[in-house]
Amino acid sequence: MTTAMQTHMDRYQKCIDICNKCMTECEFCLDACMHEPDVDARVECMSLLLDCIGICAMSAKYMAGNSRFASQVCGLCAEICDACADECDKFKDNHCQTCADICRQCAAECRAMATA
């Protein structure tokens, strides 16, 4: 790996890692929500989980590719992660509470990346 390539990966690695962790946690939460007895009350939550899964994957990909648009994508990722966390917080089961926590961590890291 070239030095320039290693430098950009070092810069992005923490954010890539939390985006991947958030994506995985949202996938788990989505699956769990689909099996909850109040699934009809979770439609907005599940929609935001899908949005969060997609934007976290995109953010990680843009950072890994050193895209000049990585900062903008990370900014949007922070917004979506915050919205997902707020929605997950409405449900008191462990999977939603854990997901909300990870989404907030991801939002903070992506916000820092977007303004760096």
Automatic annotation (TrEMBL):
Superkingdom, natural source: Bacteria
InterPro entries: Csp_YhjQ, YHJQ-like
Record PANTHER family: CYTOPLASMIC PROTEIN, CYTOPLASMIC PROTEIN-RELATED
Protein name in UniProt: Four-helix bundle copper-binding protein
